[in-house]
């Protein structure tokens, strides 16, 4: 996750001379993202007084224009807007909400690599994201100390080579698709040379919030790589799946990528059975299997997104009764020190966590 003091994405990837013809479209779109709440509200025709906005949030605002175009004009309660608009309530301290709710700060095996679960290693490839989701547990994550520099990348590869039980690498972040095609292609190639690796997974919100990112070059890298590739996208509301997005998803599928989706259950965004049912239906239509429905990580600043326990259960019962089983995402919670994400309603306290650090 980036924060205002951290990285200005545009400044990093656009040469000082301004945009050149070589600047990929997606990087250009990124440089045009909304970063000031007032500009976004003006664009949507919403009075700033109608909503308690925080205009100097510690975790800055970032909203690609294409995503803003899917919001309803004039509606301060729009579920897409709610995910990204900094509110004053973020600065209210709420008991039980902390800065490191899932214990990731303690779990680094080597810098930039999390090996919490058996067989899978998660790599923090970059701290940057194309959109800043207000509920994100990474909003307080000190990425400047935790992302892989070229030298650290060598150390990550060495770690992976030395651990033959790891058969799946997850590129995460931030958002791994913020890396350019050349770098990503090089990394994918190096990973595919590790003999015990079988699967390459990417966790990315870019296919949804910046579909321009799915370039022909990226599709080629994915098609050519002999590791089985899995892309876990992140959509929370059916309206995020525009036809531009679903077109790119189809192209990814054609390139042999297995597509999954993870969502976060968020008050005022998708805490209605009908919305979640429609989301699953639309995902399936686009060739994406619903994977996880995460309960909110109790991260400081996100308390206004929490859904009450009783409501969670009635929502999920609704999904179970209205959808075919294969379209129901697993309802999970991440708890520090456990061996897997925890299916809600199960007690995993007897399970021995897999943690080798
Ligand atoms: C979520 C997560 C994974 C992947 O878990 P799955 O249940 O396989 O999706 C792997 N490593 C870390 C550190 C994670 O947080
Ligand atoms: S939820 Fe994903 S895309 Fe959104 S800010 Fe967090 S890491 Fe970035």
UniProtKB/TrEMBL annotation:
[4Fe-4S] cluster binds at residues 129, 133, 136. Signal peptide: none annotated. Its cofactor is [4Fe-4S] cluster; pyridoxal 5'-phosphate. It comes from the Bacteria. It catalyses: L-lysine = D-beta-lysine. InterPro entries: Aldolase_TIM, EpmB, Lys_aminomutase/Glu_NH3_mut, rSAM, rSAM_sf. Residues 115-338 form the Radical SAM core domain. Gene3D superfamilies: Aldolase class I. Pfam families: Radical_SAM (PF04055). NCBIfam families: EFP_modif_epmB, KamA family radical SAM protein. Belongs to the radical SAM superfamily. KamA family. This is L-lysine 2,3-aminomutase. It comes from endosymbiont of Escarpia spicata. The gene is epmB.
């Amino acid at each position: 996750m980036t924060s205002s003091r951290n990285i200005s994405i545009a400044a990093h990837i656009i040469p000082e001379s301004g945009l050149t013809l070589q600047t990929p479209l997606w990087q250009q779109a990124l440089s045009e993202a909304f970063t000031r709440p007032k500009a976004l509200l003006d664009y949507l025709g919403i009075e700033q007084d109608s909503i308690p906005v925080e205009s100097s949030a510690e975790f800055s605002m970032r909203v690609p224009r294409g995503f803003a175009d899917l919001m309803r004009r004039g509606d301060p309660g729009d579920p897409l807007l709610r995910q990204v608009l900094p509110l004053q309530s973020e600065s209210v301290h709420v008991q039980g909400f902390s800065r490191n709710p899932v214990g990731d700060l303690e779990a680094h095996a080597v810098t930039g690599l999390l090996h919490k679960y058996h067989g899978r290693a998660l790599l923090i490839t970059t701290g940057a994201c194309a959109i800043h989701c207000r509920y994100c547990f990474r909003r307080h994550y000190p990425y400047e100390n935790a992302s892989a520099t070229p030298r650290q990348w060598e150390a990550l590869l060495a770690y992976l080579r030395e651990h033959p039980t790891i058969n799946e690498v997850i590129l995460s972040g931030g958002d791994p698709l913020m890396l350019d095609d050349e770098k990503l292609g090089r990394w994918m190639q190096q990973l595919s040379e590790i003999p015990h690796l079988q699967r390459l997974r990417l966790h990315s919100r870019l296919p949804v919030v910046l579909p321009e990112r799915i370039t022909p070059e990226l599709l080629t890298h994915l098609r050519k790589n002999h590791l089985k590739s899995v892309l876990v996208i992140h959509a929370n509301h059916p309206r995020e799946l525009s036809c531009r997005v679903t077109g790119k998803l189809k192209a990814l599928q054609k390139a042999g990528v297995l597509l999954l989706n993870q969502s976060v259950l968020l008050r005022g965004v998708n805490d209605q059975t009908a919305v979640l049912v429609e989301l699953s239906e639309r995902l399936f239509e686009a060739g994406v299997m619903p994977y996880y429905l995460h309960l909110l990580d109790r991260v400081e600043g996100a308390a206004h997104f929490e859904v009450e326990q009783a409501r969670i259960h009635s929502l999920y019962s609704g999904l179970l009764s209205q959808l075919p089983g294969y379209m129901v995402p697993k309802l999970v919670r991440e708890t520090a020190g456990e061996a897997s994400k925890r299916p809600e309603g199960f007690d995993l306290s007897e399970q021995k966590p897999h943690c080798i650090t």
